[in-house]
Amino acid sequence: MSSGGPLKQMFSNMAAAVNGAANGETAGGGGGDKAAAAKAAKRLSVERIYQKKSQLEHILLRPDTYIGSCEPLTETMYVYDDEQGMHQREITFVPGLFKIFDEVLVNAADNKQRDANMDTIKIEIDSENNSISIYNNGKGIPVVTHKDEKMYVPTMIFGHLLTSSNFNDEEQKVTGGRNGYGAKLCNIFSSKFTVETASIDYKRSFKQTWANNMSKTSEPKVKDFHGSDFTKVTFSPDLDKFKMTCLDKDTVALLSRRAYDVAASTRGVKVFLNGKRVPVKNFKDYVELYLKDKVDDTGNQIKCVYENCGPRWEVAVAISDKGFQQVSFVNSIATTKGGRHVDHVADMIIKQLIETLKKKNKGGVQIKPFQIKNHMWVFINCLIVNPAFDSQTKENMILQVKSFGSKCTLSDKFIGQVNKCGIVESVMAWAKFKAQSQLNTKCNSKKQNKIRGKYPPVPNEK
After folding, report:
1. What domains does the chain contain, in order, with CATH numbers?
2. Backbone angles phi, psi at 85, to 5 degrees
3. Exposed (0-12), middle (13-18) or buried (19+): which is 80, by Cβ within 10 Å?
4. pLDDT tens digit sequence for 252-271
5. Which of 184, 191, 205, 362 is an S-S bond match for 198, by CB 3.0 to 4.6 Å?
């Protein structure tokens, strides 16, 4: 076949047609058609660049803003499993999935602040069927139609964004909910989400199910009811959104630890995990799970000093050999990055320890507050009025101390016990080591100078 054959002509015609379409040419040609096509292309690109999304679409498109990363993260964390109990190990988990679980769990714990008679939380984690449920026997949600919104109250607060009972900042609340997202985020990132509640005040029970990331809703089922109040949320996380295929062992171990957290941080509440009561009756029991089998440099069991500082503060302190460590809760929220509540307590303790160390370390190296802090392990459980956080993930509490709504007062007895728990001895040992290191460095420097003085450099030969 020659170079000018029909096949070459066919490809040439196809290329011309494509180029003509791209340049806005029609069968009739003409500059007007080209200009119109260019304007259309420009308008289309602007529409692609500037888009308006519904809030639901935005949450699904940009989950990091609301629930944290939806990518797997490998990190060393404390977890709980039946084989090893509470322990620290490297795990891989998805922060976003952890967060949606926690939103529902903190909601359940919050109900204790609304109903002093509430005494039970039940958590079921079914990894085989990708199902999680959280139940509490506190005051149920009012099963009544909201007059302004023309829908049942449970429908409104679980299925519509920016609805909450926590928007009145003038009310002094010590709950974890704050911004009106809460359990709705769990609904949005679930393939199935069911709410059941009952209210003896209204003598009705309620059940409703959402599906496909809160985009589909069943009709609510409302019945007459004469039993005890409760609320139960059951959901199946949309695993595709979290790049997961199942609720794996690491994830279940992390979620299980939160059951222990809530048992410790929610006073007067029994917590059940998969039908078994969590063996934590109070915050002190919980702290001992972390310190169990931990020994100091001399081989002795690490001492824990605990104090109940009133209805809103519990503090425990122990020696740390891994730098400063903290385990803290604000209104049952695990503040894994700490915050001003942790700084407040740690600073009070350090201030007292400095006085003791000054007496024991006369003439030694100067010891600074952060160097003392590096030898401390602090545990804090507190209730704070209308807490503020630096993100929706609520890992770091940023409310100023003056707005806490209560004071954490540490007794002289507590401070005296902290002085004897091993922290002072550990800091002193470090100070002596540092002083010796400085002395050795100084001696080596003098020795080098003497050597240089005794053996002057040989002059260069010319």
Report:
1. 67-281 (3.30.565.10), 301-438 (3.30.230.10)
2. 70, -150
3. buried
4. 999 999 999 999 999 999 99
5. 205
